[in-house]
Every structure is written in C-alpha cells, then in structure tokens.
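Example S7 (structure tokens).
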C-alpha cells in the first residue's frame, strides 16, 4: 500500500504491527522483487518455507572458513574447511591433508609448509595454491570490518548478485568485526540479526508467502500481489480444470485476510527486458463491486523525489 492511500493510513492508525501484515503471491519467483523493495525500505520480513539465509551451503562454507581462520588449531574445522566444494579436493586428498592434525599446528607458523608437504601431484599442488592464496588474503583481513570481508568473498567467488549473500552483506554491516558476526549467526534468526544493528527496533516481521504455503494461516492485513492475467491465473492454465484450480487459489488467498485485503495489479510489467501492458485478472469480475475501493497509485517523478529530500 502507498503511504498516501486512505486504507494504508488506517493501517497505521489501527497500530497494526509487522506480524499482522502478509504479502501473498502465486509463484516463488514473484518474491524477489518484493524482498528487494522491503530491503530498500528497511523493513524486516520473513519468507514462509525458506531456510534462514545463513543456512545455505555456500554461506555455511564461508562461515566455516572464517571460523577456521580464527581457530586454525581446530582439526574438526580444518577438515570441514578442506571438504568444501570450492577447493575441489577429493575425499582421499582431504584425508591426506587432514592427517597433519595428528600434531596440531598454528596458522601463523607453518600452515603453508604443512599443506605443500602433502602435495604429490601437479593437480593437487594447484588446488593447494588456490587455497593458500585465499587463506593468506583473508587472514590478512581478520582485523577489518565484517562487511568488507563478506564483500571481498562475494567478489572473489562471483556471488554479487545472489540474494542470500546480499542479506549476509547487509547483516554484516551491523557488526564491527567478523568474530562478533560469527558468534551471532549460529544463535540468532534473520530478523534478530538485522535488528541488532539498531536500525530496526521492532521485534516483528512482515510475512511473504505463496498462496499454497499460506493455506490454514490468517493475517489481519493481506496484500495479494500480481492479480493479473498470466500470473493469477497462470498463463499456462488453459483447461477448465486448470482455471478452476487457479480460481480456487484466488479465493484461498482472499480468505487469508481478517480485516483488510489489498488486491494489487500493475499497469505494466517488465518481461524479457521490455515493458508489457498487464490486464487485471478475470477473477476480479466475480467480486461484488460495492465491496471494492479502487486506489490508483502512480510512481513519483524524479523531480518530486528530489524535492522530498528538502521536506521535513
């Protein structure tokens, strides 16, 4: 809802919290634009059915690597780090390199010699060299702020456009160093991590969910996004049975709202790099017109946005 619409003003007046708000959509791919918009607005949210962002394997690998850099004498962390797919070590090579931990050694003294001493082939030497260079680089960054370390890892492994890594990057901005970030991640959930930086004080989060995942759930305020031909119903729904299923899901979404329901349609959407006109869903015609209030929202022009910077 737009801040100037009457209904959205009522939401504010009625003191609804973030936990009272839900954004529903037909397919998972619709969530990315919503997440980007909520992130840009600094609003906390959770996605139903999705793991915490830091539980993804790639991020777990990064956290394990950083844990080991801080505690290089830990043989368990060492083996977990070597087993990560990014280094491409075989199981036999991991076992071979892990054998060094029969006598623990310190990273600051002889870690390079320990690794090179196990290399018995050119291919293994190349793998070790890549690992060495990565270890040396990030070990030199341990005193830097956490966000810089995360950003440099993202750049090195071409993760800049990955949404979960963007979340980790934003979260890391709330921590002075990588050590405090590592201490917090295994203990907290995503919303708590974002709030710890002091930018968000609410203890609640807006819910994002597909219509399927929202079955059985209800919210005081529901925004149903993309109520347009091609999205609800889906463009590939052609038979009478398929369209009936799409209409059933439409009504499932409507009944998730207890007090306020917003049905969102767009005039145009970008598809394959170009704007294409959108048509409201046929299902809207079945709703009693006397129960509907139409709210037209236009995007502010660039000049208007610039003027807002000088307004209280």
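Recovered sequence:
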């Amino acid at each position: 809802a737009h801040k100037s619409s009457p209904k959205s003003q009522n939401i504010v007046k009625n003191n609804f919290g973030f936990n009272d708000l839900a954004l529903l959509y037909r397919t998972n791919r619709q969530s990315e634009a919503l997440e980007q918009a909520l992130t840009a607005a600094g609003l906390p949210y959770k996605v139903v059915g999705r793991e915490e962002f830091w539980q993804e394997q790639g991020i777990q690998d990064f956290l394990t690597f950083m844990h080991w850099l801080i505690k290089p004498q830990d043989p368990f962390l060492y083996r977990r780090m070597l087993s990560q797919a990014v280094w491409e070590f075989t199981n036999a090579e991991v076992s071979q390199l892990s054998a060094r931990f029969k006598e623990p050694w310190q990273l600051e003294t002889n870690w390079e010699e320990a690794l090179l001493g196990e290399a018995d082939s050119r291919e293994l030497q190349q793998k070790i060299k890549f690992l060495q260079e990565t270890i040396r680089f990030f070990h030199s960054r341990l005193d830097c702020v956490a966000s810089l370390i995360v950003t440099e890892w993202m750049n090195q492994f071409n993760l800049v456009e990955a949404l979960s890594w963007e979340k980790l990057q934003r979260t890391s901005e709330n921590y002075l160093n990588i050590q405090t970030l590592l201490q917090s991640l295994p203990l907290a959930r995503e919303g708590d991590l974002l709030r710890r930086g002091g930018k968000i004080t609410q203890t609640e989060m807006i819910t994002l969910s597909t219509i399927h995942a929202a079955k059985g759930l209800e919210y005081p305020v529901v925004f149903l996004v993309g109520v347009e031909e091609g999205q609800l119903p889906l463009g590939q729904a052609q038979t009478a049975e398929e369209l009936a299923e799409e209409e059933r899901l439409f009504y499932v979404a409507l009944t998730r709202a207890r007090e306020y329901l917003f049905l969102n349609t767009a005039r145009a959407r970008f598809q394959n790099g170009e704007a294409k006109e959108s048509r409201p869903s046929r299902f809207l015609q079945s709703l009693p017109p006397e129960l509907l209030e139409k709210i037209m929202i236009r995007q502010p022009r660039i000049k208007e946005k610039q003027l807002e910077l000088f307004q209280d």
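Notes on this example. The first helix runs from residue 6 to 13.
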